[in-house]
Amino acid sequence: MNPAPAISLNPAQQAAVERWGQDVCVVAGPGSGKTRVLIERFRWLVASKGIPPNRILAVTFTEKAATEIKKRLIQSFTSDELREQIERAWVSTIHGFCTRLLKENAIAAAVDPDFSLLDEAQSRILQLHTAEAVLDDLLGERPELMRVLLRELNTGASGLAESLLEFFEEARTAGMPLENLRPPSKQAASAWPRISGAAHSILADPPVGTFNQRQSHQRFHQWAAAVLALDPSSSFREKIRLFAGMPSATSLKSTSRARSAALELEETLLPLAQAELILDARLPVYPLILEALRRIRDAYSGAKRLRGVLDFDDLEEFAIHLLESNEPLRARVRHSFDQVLMDELQDTNRLQWRLIDLVRRPDTLFAVGDINQSIYYFRHADPGVFRDYRDSLSSRGLPIDELRENYRARPEIIDAVNRITPYLSDGVEPHRLLACREFPSLSNSCIEYVHTFAAVPEDDPVRTEARWIARRIQELNSPPDYSRFAILARVIGALAPIQQALDEYGIPSVISGGRSFYESREIRDLTAWLNVLANPRDEISLVTVLRSPLCGISDELLFRLKHSAPDDLFAALATAGDPRLEWFHALVSKQRAQAGASSPDALLAQVLDESGYQDGLPSRPRANIAKFLAILRDRFHKNPATPGELAADIARWRETAAEPEASAAELANCVHLMSVHSAKGLEFPVVFLAAMRNGAQNREPVFCFDASGLLGATWRHPELRKGISDPTHLQVCARRKRQEDAEEDRLLYVAMTRAGERLVFTASSHPGRSDWARKVAEGLLLPTSIPKAEHSESIYSAIREAPPPPSPQSGDLEEQTPAAIVSPPSIPGGHDSVVPVTSVARFAFCPRQYYLSRYLGLPTQTPAPINANPDPEADAGEWTASEFGVAVHEILAGKSIENPPPEAITLAARFHASPLGRRLENASRLGREYDFLIELEDMILRGQIDLWFEESGELILVDYKSDLVAPGGERRHAYRYGAQIRLYALALERLTGRLPDHAFLWYLRTETPVPVSLHPQAIAEARGLVRQLREAQSAVKFPMREGDHCLRCAHYQSACPAQPTPDSSNPLPLAPS
Predict the structure, then answer these.
(1) Which of 358, 468, 691, 890 lies at a CB distance of 3.0 to 4.6 Å from 494, suitable for a disulfide?
(2) How many contiguous H segments (helices) and E segments (strands) does the chain have?
């Protein structure tokens, strides 16, 4: 058949290619040449077994892979006839195969032979429209049950349609007919007797451990006694409220019997009891959920039929139905293929495997895959498909072909991967890779590990990490070729600060994958303009446009405009006396009149031209703008829509469609930033695995089903801002959590194996959800916490601890003139225009410390307090104090966080159960995490108020503190925050028209409120501090405030000459009450 010379294969590859007379399973590790093996198998079947190309079905994961395989197969034969046969061969994705099968058998499949295919975004928009219409109909038909569903389900009313559609998609992908789903029935309370037993165990165990642990133990005794005293006939809410008030088990001594009982309660018994209670309370609503789901399916199917379209799931469903319902056609299709080749089997789902099983004959399947690289669980991929296939062959005594030789990476990188793999979960199988590629020697190591951290809360370890990466790329870019570098992260959002740092250093880059296109600054600006055209009173979009280069006004001007016209900011622009604002108002008004007749791309092009938005823009954003205008033009011509409708579609695309940033010719030589998912199948000489603390938030589904088709759901907690799972939901989500954790580790494995010549791990101490940094450090035998001092290199002389990077520089001075010391001049107006309220508080505490840390940027790592006596009994946790504080604040703000520390939930519950929390429940109005900008003493102050509310005619301000403060020490600790709280009170006065009646610092750990005086003199002193800060900045004079606090300051006996003595000590007064 005139084949070209065969590609050289190693013995393991050759054995796999030529295995015959059985189904074949090839376990192909990263860089092992699996694509080459698949191509050579196809080539061998044609050249050696005489099988025509059109009788071989080859299924790939992507269209790009299918095209590449066809191209290389064509190149491997010299016969023109064979090349033409390969052009027509069945080499495609599974969706491509289904499309061809359905079009060739359209009458039997009962589909329009000219059907078109909805892409993911189009499908999602059509689904949402039909789902919302169905829910509107149900609300009119069954208002009472629908109101319960909308009010009590653990999603907002606007999220019900989305949640039902997610459930619908999962059922389709799993091959679960909606008719097989069934509602749950009432269950007997199985958890309550075991809860009583655990409560008895807690009461029987006397308090032990440290002072704090004994206090916690006593609180547990009180809680356990309340449980045993609870009347079994108590209401659902009473029981849930009691459960929510359980103290944290981790606060007890680790070796106590009470802690064991408390952990069982926390982890198993209380969730089960709550699940049984919520099911009993919401049981009447479950049939309505299933009815809504089935009506959505029918409405969506009807909408597609009217349009003559199918979606991707339809392709698989219709193809399976065609083959299963038509036995003669199935037999004909099966006998059309002598061999079936399947790539990336680990990334298929059960429905796709069912399809492959229908078209293959016994002993004809050649499947390639690697469980360790299965990373598409969120798309319902099931690595169990590959595992079951492999195990079925092994159980019959058939050989499994394993390819462990890696031809991609340096031996040092492979060794690092092999070291880290044992520290990953069971989701990664412990296969040892073998390095088989030769590289020239390096003068330094090719494995680096960098961890940045915040020495004080004001430091930004994320920015430090980003700038270190940029500087390191500059150092390594020799010979110059930025395309050799890739920066990978678990989530695409973590790459934004890194791309900003690359821009600062003049390094070209492009983000690929994820939703980076619609999230880019220029696309958000243009989308905001469309929103303003639709509704000029949309102040969020209006402010976005005004602050953007489309208009370009300052925050100070924006503040003054809003202050002068609080009710209609857009109308105020016409009379603002600023030519640019008047131009903006006139153009928006003109375009609103034209919107019905002009295409949106033409309107935006006019804005871009008149504003000069693109002047000086780099290549990447200019290419993004051109791509965006083309998308709008195409969308408008296919389906004309108003600017508001287009903006709504864009918002949905942002949520549902993965759209990469546009590429420009100038960006061929650029650093590639991408998510690990986008990097699958790629390789780069230098890989930075960055932001290892940033994990994805794996949100639990609102609805689910178990293997038997039993429906599960999660409902609103009546006391806390979180959900309560019913028994089915609890069980299914526990299994999903294990699967997601396993996939997280497989993602790390995939990321590490993208590197060829150098692999750099970076992480920051920014609070995050991922455990990658710890696992990498353990595998490389590094400290898993921030070391006290620089540690020595410990693996291949390559482990580096990153110092804070220098600022980007255009060049170095060859000579330096000796510095002359002069008095700094006072510069009128030389102060910051915008200042955080926390900066005023830090300045008030010590002006010199504020200057050294915030102005000069000197390290502020504070040593351990003198005479510190660490408690050897204390139980260490994985959450730092900073991370824990963030978690508590987010829970109190009503936000959902992944796997919060149980103690944080307990502290939040205690606040809600306190007298202040009970007042909050009855509030007539309130605000959480209220961001503000106010003008005071010629400075703009910005900050965020944790909580304010109005109840019984009183206005109350609350600031939470999660600090570890000994009981009785709260008032002394609160002193430093007095000025901050009073400035918050002034900001609240601007919002509500009056000062708060009361202000409190609430110490969460000790449940202690510390009142802060809002006496006029105290308020005047707070204003005076702002004035003093402004004057100090203008004069560059920051005096010392000496006292015993100096002994705990990082600048003591270094940059600061303070010499505190008993006579000069300036003790902190108590917070005035």
Answers:
(1) 691
(2) 42, 25
Q: Are 666 and 480 in contact (CB under 8 A)?
A: no
**Cβ proximity of 717 and 371 under 8 Å:** no
At 858-893, the pLDDT tens digits run: 655 443 333 333 333 333 334 556 667 777 888 888
Give me the number of domains the chain comprises. Answer: 4
CATH code for the domain in which residue 547 is found = 1.10.486.10
Q: Note the pLDDT tens digit of each residue in 387-409.
A: 999 999 999 999 999 999 999 99
Question: Residues 919, 993: one domain?
Answer: yes
Query: What is each CA distance from 1051 to 454, 457, 853, 860, 861, in whole angstroms?
Result: 16, 16, 9, 7, 9
pLDDT (0 to 100) of residue 924: 85
* 521 shares its domain with 623: yes
Residue-range definition of the domain harbouring residue 633: 516-659
Q: Judge residue 649's burial from the number of C-beta atoms within 10 Å of its C-beta, 0-12 exposed, 13-18 middle, 19 or more buried.
A: middle
Domain end residue (candidates: 635, 659, 683) = 659
Tokens of 203: 């009461």
Q: Alpha-carbon distance 450 to 691, whole Å?
A: 10
Report whether 489 contacts 770 (CB < 8 A). Answer: no
Query: What pLDDT does residue 614 have?
Result: 82
CB 793 within 8 A of CB 445: yes
Q: 393 and 411 in one domain?
A: no
pLDDT of residue 63: 85
The pairing of beta strand 339-342 with beta strand 998-1003: unpaired
pLDDT at 817: 41
Is 508 in the same domain as 525?
Answer: no
Half-sphere exposure of 990 (CA within 13 A, CB side): 20
CATH of the domain at 895: 3.90.320.10
Burial group, residue 518, by CB count within 10 angstroms (0-12, 13-18, 19+): buried
In this structure, the answer to whether residues 410 and 496 fall within a common structural domain is yes
Give φ, ψ of 429 to 5 degrees: -75, 140
**Is residue 723, in this structure, part of any structural domain at all?**
no
Instruction: Select the more confidently predicted residue: 677 or 893.
Output: 677
Strand pairing class (939-951; 925-936): antiparallel
**In whole angstroms, what is the distance from residue 569 CA to residue 571 CA?**
6
Check whether residue 773 and residue 922 sit in a common domain: no
Q: Measured between alpha carbons, how far is 55 from 43 in angstroms, rounded to an integer? A: 13
CA-based nearest residue to 518, from 628, 667, 671: 628
Do 647 and 679 have their domain in common?
Answer: no
Report CA 919 to chain centroid distance, whole Å. Answer: 34
Could you tell me if residue 91 is inside a domain?
A: yes
Closest CA to 561 of 548, 550, 547, 549: 547
68 domain residue, yes or no: yes
Q: What is the pLDDT of residues 742-794, one digit of tens each?
A: 999 999 999 999 999 999 999 987 665 678 988 998 999 887 665 443 333 32
Cβ pair 164, 292 in contact under 8 A = yes
